Amino acid sequence: MHVTTVIIGAGHAGLAMSRRLTARSIDHVVLERGQVANSWRTERWDSLRLLTPNWHSRLPGAPYAGDDPDGFMTMPALASMISDYAEAVAAPVQTETTVTRVAPADGGYAVTTDRGPWTCESVVLASGAANVAAVPAMAQGASSSVAMVTPLTYRSPDQLDDRGVLVVGASASGVQLADEIQRSGRPVTLAAGEQVRVPRSYGGRDIFWWLEAAGLLDEGRDEVDDLVRARHIPSPQLIGTPERRSIDLSSLADLGVEVVGRLGSLRDGVAQFSGGLANTCRLADLKMQRLLDRFDDWARHNDLDLDDPPRRPEPIRRSGPAVLDLDLHRRGIRTIVWATGYRPDHSWLDVPVLDRRGRVRHDGGVVLDSPGLYLLGGNLLRSRRSSYLAGADADTLALADHLRDHLDRVRLDRSRRRHPLEVLALDRGRASTAAP
Amino acid sequence: MTMTSKPVENGVNTEALVGARDALRDAPEAAEFTWRATNSWVEGTYSRSTVDGFAGLGQEHRHEQAFTLDTDHPQVFASQDRGATPVELVLAGLAGCLTAGVAAVAQMRGIQLHSVTSTVEGRMNVLGILGGDPEVRNGFDTVSVRFSIDADASPEDIEALVAQSQKRSAVFDVITNPTDVRVSVDA
After folding, report:
1. Does B166 touch chain A (CB under 8 A)?
2. CA A274, CA A380: separation in Å to the nearest integer?
3. What residues of chain A lie within 8 A of the CB of B167, using their CB?
4. Chain A interface includes B159 (CB < 8 A)
5. Which residue, among A118, A117, A61, A39, has the nearest Cα to A342 in the 3D structure?
6. Of A152, A296, A331, A416, which has the fewest CB atoms closer than 10 Å, so is most exposed?
7. Edge-to-edge strand list for the sheet holding A258-261
8. CA distance A269 to chain B (A)
């Protein structure tokens, strides 16, 4: 089968792109390995809610229409919102179709699936940035009596042994799981490396209200000092709950979680932790204060009516000597949760566009050295907003325009080898659309 | 934003460092360095280390001169104190590394330094190394570093300098994290 564009993945990004292509009359298909919003349905833990408030979690042409704009969507609610969106934009989705290979062919691409092949002129990779849990090699050093889960396989505390749990990683996933598991009665040890601490709300407004107001999410990829590093900064310590509470190492310690430094080694069932925890906590506090300073500056310049100044979170409390090693078995730890990050799975991509770390080389989603290939999703794809659901709006707009221009160029090149009258007609068409 | 009337000069070439970072991302093999010291026993607990060459950027390098570092134990350990105690060299290494980091980060952030001094203390129960108590480790229980910095910056910005310096410090990492150490003996 031939189609102009194949979009791989019917999540929010792939569907937003489908809407953009439909608006540009570009015929396409959206190939989905499972059902629409598959990862949100099948690879998230039960209690998870989006970290962005409902008003922020909008898709192109579909602002939030419910009655709880300040709430945080559960995964079933999000999956049904995305399914509704697929219908509303009449996305040509082919579900239960797994892509097994994408390779260059005839100036375009050949897409192989478990339900037949496609050829196309362009491909949009929208299969997600969190397909695989990045578990460090040292996981092999855990004894076989310890069960290991990742945020992609964890569903609820009930599936875990009821003794101790070591959660490795203190980004958004790690702190949320440490919180939930500790509350279930299982004593949690949390190994925390570099962290990004932010309050859920500040001066009575949600953190995302501030980030939007102060323009921080508009910061483009060419405006950040070190893009490679910025893309790998851990996700902020946030949790979406009806009571809008903050989550950080202090709140976890209050629950009884034992906070230790970054996991440095795991050998023969003994874990060793970094002695640098005090500094990573201090750095997180300093960065948070700088962020809140920016909010204060913005509020002053915009005459925002605030308590003056809004109350700031206390620095992370640290008490007692740092724990540097633990014999997991003796300590009663029977489960390790590897909340050590995610990466996309592009193992089926047979196009030479990966860097030495296996990451797709791209400029703002335009894949380098492979015309017609596009990437959606991931941290800071084009701007800071790209890291969140709402980022798909501007990202798909820019990439759909780029894709359309690419198709126009390819067709023009081809037409030049065709009949002169066809070329003339095409040129006229371009001239008239270019007129104001 | 730090406003300065004249260019900040801490004697660190940050353009070169940032340039190197970007260049080495594209040439990862060149980023692999090997640091090296040789050591020769003199007598008793007294030995002499020499640092001369190191490898990196795909080739061998030599220091401007060979540096020698004498180590011994003090008289309270019945030695003759002909050099620094090895653990003191570790503390000096930490201070040197963090201070270099403070200068580099200050230069990057446009902060003029006037003076940077620090005191490093490592607390140790020597029953560990003496084999007198199996519950006591050989190494430091805690290491503390106290900086005193005079610079054209707010106390928060100075604190941030020191925090960032720890984040990027090799010796801080060496001390705070486990390292795979392999010791062999030539036949």
Report:
1. yes
2. 29
3. 194, 279-280, 283
4. yes
5. A39
6. A416
7. A147-149, A333-338, A164-168, A188-192, A258-261
8. 15
Q: How confident is the model at residue A426 (pLDDT cuts 50, 70, 90)?
A: low
- B187 located within any domain: no
Residue of A323, A306, A145, A298 lying closest to A218 (CA atoms): A298
Burial class (CB in 10 A: 0-12, 13-18, 19+), A22: middle
pTM of the shown model: 0.89
Beta partners for A336? A148, A166
Q: Are A119 and A102 in contact (CB under 8 A)?
A: no
Cα first-last separation, chain A: 37
What b-and-e string marks burial along A264-273, b requiring 16 or more CB atoms within 10 Å of the CB?
bbbeebbbbb
Q: Report the pLDDT averaged over residues B19-27.
A: 81
**What is the C-alpha separation between B52 and B86, in angstroms, rounded?**
19
Do B33 and B49 share a domain, yes or no?
yes
For B106-132, b where at least 16 C-beta lie within 10 A, e where not — what string? bbbebbbbeebebebebebeeebeeee
Q: What is the pLDDT of residues B119-140, one digit of tens each?
A: 999 999 999 988 888 889 999 9
What chain A holds in terms of domains, given with CATH numbers, is: 2-131+344-434 (3.50.50.60), 133-342 (3.50.50.60)
| Parent domain of B43 | 13-84
**Tell me, what's the pLDDT at B5?**
57
A275·B167 Cβ contact <8 A = no
Q: What is the pLDDT of residue B10?
A: 87
Q: What is the DSSP letter of A74?
A: B
A258-305: pLDDT as tens digits: 999 999 999 989 999 999 999 999 999 999 999 999 999 999 999 887
pLDDT at A431: 44
Which residue of B143, B166, B178 is in closest CB contact with A265?
Answer: B178
- Prediction ipTM score: 0.81
Closest CA to A151 of A129, A128, A174: A174
Name the β-bridge partners of B63.
none
Contact (CB, 8 A) for A154 and A44? no
In chain A, residues with a C-beta closer than 8 Å to the C-beta of B166 are: 276, 279
Nearest residue of chain B to residue A278 (CA atoms): B163
Q: Is the pLDDT of residue A434 over 50?
A: no
Helical segments of A133-171, H only: none
**For the domain that residue B69 is a member of, what is the CATH number?**
3.30.300.20
Pairing type for strands A108-113 and A118-125 reads antiparallel
In this predicted structure, the answer to whether residue B51 has a pLDDT above a threshold of 70 is yes
Q: CB contact, 8 Å: B49 with chain A?
A: no
pLDDT at A428: 54
- What's the token pair of residue B122? 């490592």
Q: What percent of chain A has pLDDT over 90?
A: 85
**Domain check: are B77 and B106 in the same one?**
no
